[in-house]
Amino acid sequence: MEYSFDVVSKIDQQELANALDQARREIVARYDFKNVLVDIKVADGVLTIHTTDEYKFTAVLEIIKSKFIRRGIDLKILGEEKREDAANSTLRVTIKLVEGISGDYAKTINKLIRDHFPKIKSSIQGEELRVSSKSKDDLQAVMQLLKSDPEIKLPLQFTNYR
After folding, report:
1. Cα separation, 8 vs 119, whole angstroms
2. What does the pLDDT profile of the chain (162 residues) look like in tens digits?
3. What does the domain layout of the chain look like in residue ranges?
4. Would you tell me which CATH number, out of the four given (1.10.1740.10, 3.40.50.300, 3.30.70.860, 3.40.50.2300), belongs to the domain 3-10+100-159?
5. Distance from the Cα of residue 149 to its chain's centroid
6. d(C-alpha 139, C-alpha 109), whole Å
7. Is CB count within 10 Å lower at the N or C end of the chain?
8. d(CA 112, CA 149)
9. Secondary structure in 3-state letters for the chain
10. Could you give the strand order of the β-sheet that contains 38-43, starting from the edge strand earlier in sequence?
11. Which residues face 4 on adjacent strands?
């Protein structure tokens, strides 16, 4: 009997929407944000935060991160930030949301698994990896390795257990 699971990197869009909605509600309720421009949007895999200055942006991002953690969204989905000045000397920051496992990254993960567990088979299938073994314990050890390894900068989920 052979057991397997898939390693994927997907964002739960409903949880993302809920977390951002909670962040917006907290910002509206906070005294330090009274009469302050704060606009949070997500479109095409990009989170856009538009606010008055760097200090407010940092506070908004911390609120968003706390909501992500509370809703079980991995903070690794937040990719690189791009800052730009907007109208009326405000600040607009776009943050790319990381989703999917690129071919190069899949090869890195594959090599990591093979280096630590030579008996385990792993194969790249599009934007996911299939990991299989005769031992469930070995598969759980692979999951722990992938969760804890500092080289992995992607939010990974494990699906399709068989």
Report:
1. 21
2. 889 999 898 899 999 999 999 999 999 999 988 888 899 999 988 999 999 989 999 999 999 999 999 999 989 899 999 999 888 888 999 999 988 888 888 888 889 999 989 889 988 888 888 999 998 898 899 999 988 888 888 888 888 888
3. 3-10+100-159, 13-97
4. 3.30.70.860
5. 15
6. 14
7. N
8. 9
9. CCEEEEEECCCCHHHHHHHHHHHHHHHHHCHHHCCCCEEEEEECCEEEEEECCHHHHHHHHHHHHHHHHHCCCCHHHEEEEEEEEEHHHEEEEEEEECCCCCHHHHHHHHHHHHHHCCCCEEEEECCEEEEEECCHHHHHHHHHHHHHCCCCCCCCEEECCC
10. 38-43, 46-51, 90-97, 78-86
11. 132
d(CA 64, CA 1): 44
The CATH H-level (homologous superfamily) assignment of domain 13-97 is: YajQ-like, domain 2 (3.30.70.990)
3-state secondary structure labels for all residues of 27-65: HHHCHHHCCCCEEEEEECCEEEEEECCHHHHHHHHHHHH
